[in-house]
Write a structure and sequence with these properties.
The complex is a heterodimer of chains A (258) and B (254).
Chain A: H1 12-45, E1 76-80, E2 89-90, E3 96-101, E4 104-109, E5 116-120, E6 130-138, E7 145-153, E8 158-165, E9 170-177, E10 180-188, E11 199-206, E12 209-214, E13 217-223, E14 233-238, E15 244-254
Antiparallel strand pairs in A: 1-15, 2-5, 3-4, 4-15, 5-14, 6-11, 6-15, 7-8, 7-14, 8-9, 9-10, 11-12, 12-13
Chain B: H1 2-8, H2 14-51, E1 77-79, E2 89-91, E3 95-100, E4 103-108, E5 115-119, E6 128-137, E7 145-152, E8 157-164, E9 169-176, E10 179-188, E11 198-205, E12 208-213, E13 216-222, E14 231-236, E15 243-253
Antiparallel strand pairs in B: 1-15, 2-5, 3-4, 4-15, 5-14, 6-11, 6-15, 7-8, 7-14, 8-9, 9-10, 11-12, 12-13
The chains are: A mainly beta (258), B alpha+beta (254).
């Protein structure tokens, strides 16, 4: 028995194990890709879990409806520069005083338990979408509120009020109807400038939707199904005594928006 | 010589055997991972199938009172939110209550600041009353929301039937002008997950309060010092989501 007659070493077992490892590697890769594909598919499917009604809601971050190139006074329905009382500004004389001075209207509430509201007899009764802008300031530092009213219907004792407070930088939307107030919206807007700055308030009204602008910046929107905000007159509002509201450059423009 | 040759070529090698065992363990691990993943996928696909056909608000075709229907049906007040002529208002600052496309939309615009959309005169003041409404949200939220009843907005007192669809929990609170009392603590209940609608009801008889979720009684509580008012509404805990309320039913009877 010489060395040449010895049986060669067999590596069958090693080859089987090696093949097993290669197969294992391939299966692991396949499994990984299957997992990856199914995970991606689930990710794509998960957005379907939304409330479809919610997609019809207005966006949380409001988008202005008025055209970017809109210039106040470009499509005028009414303009008031407060040189004098040619448009017949009026209100309850027991509750409010009015004075025209230096091309501005000064309004003061006379009763601390009530509000002062003023509107003009020549102010148009609005029926179409419009944007209403007015510059408001106060004659002294105050934490009292003031603002603009719209959808004003004297015969029904009814209006909506958009009010701001310079101290708290808060804004409010309320509805008034037959001695009853209903608050609909409140919030904080950094765009409200403190005393003695002039704040330019604008409201864009289109059927049952209103957009509120302060110093040119859209701060909030409001919708109320079944309510036509564009029907009625506009006016000015003082909530408290102890200061005078100064109004200037009141403009109402016809504007369709988006 | 023969004995030596046998020693040189053993029948199996320890290294190969060890590698083989390792391979078997790896295959076993692979099988376990594969079965776990396929089970998870099956679960997911079932969930998706559950949701995807109608991933929207499911509301009954004819909204109706689910429990405690009164004998005199003319007592029932129903609000479908086709308009806000009934004057649903905001309670607490920093929020908004709107009526859009036949739903009441309530939101707070400050985190950790609640908002209530309420009506204080929806029903007349009696010792027995029932309130029911459908609730869902515009997005999935971890924040609770709920049904307000027994409210007096001048005093700032009310009951709050809170649910959290994410944690499947409900509780009943009583607010006495800012002081909270937990009448029914955090409890588990069958609450439908987002985006489905949950119908909450409360039946009040002289301080005895029964709470229902989707028509099923989940809890009852006897309040020894009950709130005697009948204002109703909806409650959101903070900002980041909008509560969608529909089909508000209520009645009171002597």
């Amino acid at each position: 028995m010489g060395p040449s007659s010895e049986k060669p070493e067999s590596y069958t077992a090693e080859l089987v194990v090696l093949a097993g490892y290669i197969l294992f590697f391939c299966l692991a890769v396949i499994l990984y890709f299957i997992f990856l594909i199914s995970f991606t598919r689930n990710l794509q499917k998960s957005p379907s879990q939304i409330n479809s009604f919610a997609t019809n809601l207005p966006p949380q971050t409001p988008i202005p409806s008025i055209p970017l190139n809109y210039e106040p006074g470009s499509l005028p329905i009414f303009r008031e520069d407060f040189d004098n009382n040619q448009n017949g500004w009026t209100g309850d004389p027991d509750l409010a005083s009015r004075e025209f001075k230096d091309g501005k209207l000064y309004i003061e509430s006379l009763d601390e338990n009530s509000y002062a509201l003023t509107s003009c007899s020549k102010c148009p009764i609005l029926r179409e979408p419009y944007i209403f802008t007015v510059e408001l300031s106060t004659d002294q530092l105050t934490d009292g509120g003031f603002g603009v009213v719209f959808a004003l219907q004297y015969t029904r004792d009814y209006f909506y009020l958009f009010r701001i407070n310079l101290e708290s930088k808060k804004y409010f939307l309320s509805r008034y109807y037959e001695d009853n107030w209903s608050r609909r919206m409140t919030g904080i807007a950094d765009q409200i400038q403190p005393y003695p700055a002039v704040n330019k308030l604008s409201i864009y009204v289109n059927k049952s939707m209103v957009e509120f602008y302060i110093n040119g910046k859209l701060i909030d929107t409001y919708q109320d199904a079944g309510t036509s905000f564009q029907s009625g007159q506009v006016g000015l509002y003082v909530n408290d005594t102890g200061f005078r509201l100064i109004a200037d450059n009141l403009i109402i423009d016809k504007i369709e928006g988006k | 010589m023969d004995t030596e040759a046998l020693k040189k070529v053993p029948k199996y090698r320890w290294g190969t055997k060890l590698a083989g065992w390792c391979l078997l363990i790896l295959y076993a691990g692979l099988c376990i991972v594969a079965s776990v993943l396929s089970f998870g996928n099956k679960d997911n696909s079932l969930q998706i199938n559950d949701v995807s056909p109608t991933p929207t608000i499911k509301s009954s075709v004819t909204p109706q009172i689910l429990v405690h229907l009164p004998e005199n049906k003319s007592l029932i007040k129903f609000e479908d939110f086709s308009s806000n002529i009934r004057n649903w208002s905001l309670y607490y600052p920093n929020g908004k209550v709107e009526v859009i496309n036949g739903k009441m939309i309530l939101q707070s615009n400050l985190s950790n600041h609640a908002a209530i959309g309420e009506r204080h005169d929806f029903i007349s003041v009696y010792e027995n009353y029932y309130v029911q409404a459908d609730f869902t949200t515009d997005i999935a939220t971890r924040l609770p929301y709920g049904l307000v009843f027994g409210m007096n907005d001048s005093l700032g007192t009310y009951y709050l039937f809170f649910i959290n669809p994410q944690t499947q929990a409900y509780y009943l609170l009583k607010n006495l002008s800012g002081e909270w009392n937990e009448l029914i603590p955090f409890s588990r209940g069958k609450i439908k997950p987002y985006p489905e609608v949950n119908t909450l009801s409360a039946y009040y008889v002289k301080g005895n309060i029964e709470l229902f979720i989707n028509g099923e009684l989940v809890a009852s509580y006897l309040d020894e010092q009950p709130l005697q008012y009948v204002g109703v509404g909806a409650y959101v805990t903070g900002s980041g989501y909008r509560l969608i309320v529909d089909n508000f039913f209520a009645y009171s009877e002597p």
